[in-house]
Amino acid sequence: MKKLLRFLTNYKKELVFGPFFKLLEAIFELIVPVVMAKIIDNGIANNDSGYIFRMSGLIVLLGVFGLGFALTCQYLAARCAYGFGTELREALYKHINTLSFSGIDKIGTSSIVNRLTNDTNTVQNGVNMFIRLAVRAPFLIIGAAVMAVSIDVKLSMIFFVAAPLISAVIFFIMRKTVPMYKTNQQKLDHAAMLTSENLEGARVIRAFSRQQEEIDEFNSAVDEIEKCSIAVGKISAILNPVSFMIMNLGIVAILWFGGKRINIGDLTQGELTAFTNYMTQILLALIVFANLIIIFTKAFASANRISEVFDIPSEEKGSLVPDSSSERMIEFRGVRFAYDNSGDDALHNISFSIGRGEMLGIIGGTGSGKSTIASLIPCFYRATEGCVLVGGQDVNDCDPEKLRQKIGYVPQKAVLFSGTVRDNMKWRNQDASDEEIINALKTAQAWEFVEKMPNGLDSVISQGGKNLSGGQKQRISIARALVGDPDIVILDDSTSALDYSTDLALRKALKTDLPDTTVVMISQRTTSLKDAELIVVVDDGKAVGTGTHSELIDSCEVYREIYKSQMNEKEESAS
After folding, report:
1. What does pTM read for this prediction?
2. How far from chain centre, in Å, is Cα 528?
């Protein structure tokens, strides 16, 4: 929680004056029983209606001022809490965007989303309650106890018996429920993950008629949340009835013993009424204090979860910039890589180099490490051993932003964003002209269908590109990466939805339109890599073959088997 206090620095006035006004309200509240005692002892006892009206007016005045102080505190608390929450969310979201892929993998996307939404709300509520009640509740307890003792020391012993009993109940409940709140948050993370997966994979789920299975799995997850919440609720439900039982028994004891003390003249009726009010205030404040502790416990648990995200270091930044004129554009030197919390290495001793304007092909079986190699080039992940050089510079020493400005990256899964075609095409270069965009679309073989769309470049793409086919999404994703003439283009199996003739046309266009651009093409098709100056064959994270197509046919059994399994007349003609 301490790490989040920096977001309160702009709200020092609210943090000071909010509790101060709440304190004033509590003081006025403590004065009311004294005034009531005077009304009973002096006004009612002497049948002095004028005195009764004057003192009743004072109670109303105290109530009005108390209300004003309370509303002022509420305003300051809301201003501070919501301002704090806004700054916290902005800083957390900004930090998340500075994390490396490894950092994001440590917690998981669904959990990060839950922390950014649910946990920030919980902490925000904790700040709000702190300003509103953290001063008021303890002050009422202490103040009412002092006032009760000042009225009658012997009778106040009842409070000193009741208060520890209620405190014991509060301690018991907290000891049981605090660990359960953290468990409940983890179960919420799991439910959020299932929701995200189901929404993203809705088409696949329906294609396999898996709706009922997914519904059952989600129901099971939310049932777990329900069970945990009910268990917490059952324990927490003990608080109010037991506390009120102790409080009411205490009031009965006060009335009983207080009545005896009135009979012997040691106590007046007004003082007994005031004492009863103070007893009620004390015990109610204890219950409020208990609920406040529960709120703070939740807030601290959520604050720790948020702090875990802040504790993940931002992506390391160097200062070097790759040299666009370097003859060796990409070079791997004895690269080994292992994902965090993974037992085995994903890559073993990978070495190769490719020059400017050349094409690098990477091929291999599923899970062999092809995409991992692609992720190391823009420094999405850092090599465990060895080094990756781009433009003659170690990517670990490069400014990530400058490095990635020189790279056009197309992931395996084509990702488009809601907006127009033009909006999506300007991701690499916000100042790109329509001419540059159209040229990139033509190179990617996408202009032929974009031109026919109702509004051309201003045609709207729905969220995730759901109004486009798989091949159309891939081609627009490729075109987006080509805007701005990058030094390197990485196509991570991003032509899988293209037919053979379009694939061939794309490769020819890349050679013709971007002669100085180094192309890294990851593909399952040997025909797509035939013209590559260098092909790396990956098997179980190892480079089992490097060379040209013809060299690998003769020297690499894995490549030869892939080639023979795919080759047919249609592919031969397309190649």
Report:
1. 0.75
2. 40
